[in-house]
UniProtKB/TrEMBL annotation:
The chain crosses the membrane at residues 177-198. It comes from Culter alburnus (Topmouth culter). The keyword rRNA-binding does not apply. GO terms for biological process: angiogenesis; calcium ion transport; cellular response to hormone stimulus; G protein-coupled receptor signaling pathway; intracellular protein transport; protein localization to plasma membrane; receptor internalization; regulation of G protein-coupled receptor signaling pathway. Keywords: Cell membrane, Disulfide bond, Membrane, Receptor, Signal, Transmembrane, Transmembrane helix, Transport. GO terms for cellular component: cell surface; plasma membrane; receptor complex. Residues 1-30 form the signal peptide. This is Receptor activity modifying protein 2. PANTHER family: RAMP2 PROTEIN, RECEPTOR ACTIVITY MODIFYING PROTEIN RAMP.
């Protein structure tokens, strides 16, 4: 009898252990989704970031005596706009193009030998970087691009660096091509005349 009571007590202890374990696991499963739902609810309640211009305050008379002005939303625009707070955007744009974009272009060109300035493969990187720089600054300051000032800068660059570059002048084609182009219609005219005469004779015979 004592052996029987000991044998039946072990399954009861094991069953109690598994019941407690199942309750703990179910409790954990109910808690985790609630936390996740709370996180999702917080994320959904946060309004999405709007793509808009940043407002800057300035005391420059050109901006309306302490009014606000917009700035582009690119990553580098805050730097440009903060630099231009105390001046008009057009004046500041010209300063940035000359002392930033044009400066880096001049440095890039000076690092090359003047004999390769006419090589497109060698100068296109510096030229493209200068173009992108002027366009990016204009976009940040909400100015039109291209504009008259940028066009004058490009003219000055071409006059300074590319004026001596040879240009391919229009040349006459080789004599063989000229002869072929001239002789082709000349040979076709007699052939067309012969065809017309034969067609006329055939028509007269039928009639």
């Amino acid at each position: 009898m004592e052996h029987t009571s000991i044998t039946t007590s072990k399954p009861q202890g094991t069953l109690l252990f598994w019941v407690c374990l199942c309750l703990m696991v179910s409790t954990l499963h109910t808690l985790v989704p609630n936390e996740q739902k709370h996180t999702v609810r917080q994320t959904a309640s946060t309004p999405p970031t709007e793509v808009q211009t940043t407002a800057y305050t300035t005391a420059d008379p050109g901006h309306g005596n302490g009014g606000t002005f917009g700035c582009g939303n690119k990553s580098v625009c805050d730097l440009y706009c903060s630099f231009c707070v105390n001046s008009s955007f057009r004046t500041c744009y010209e300063v940035l193009v000359v002392h930033l974009c044009r400066y880096h272009f001049n440095v890039a060109m000076a690092s090359m030998n003047s004999t390769v300035w006419c090589s497109l493969e060698r100068v296109k990187s510096a030229y493209n970087n200068f173009t992108v720089c002027t366009e990016t600054v204009a976009d940040c300051l909400l100015l039109p691009w291209p504009n008259h000032f940028v066009e004058s800068i490009f003219v000055d660059i071409h006059t300074t660096y590319f004026q001596e570059c040879p240009t391919e002048a229009l040349r006459d084609p080789p004599p063989s091509i000229v002869l072929a182009l001239v002789m082709t219609p000349i040979c076709l005219i007699p052939a067309m005349v012969v065809l017309v005469v034969l067609k006329t004779k055939n028509g007269d015979r039928r009639s």
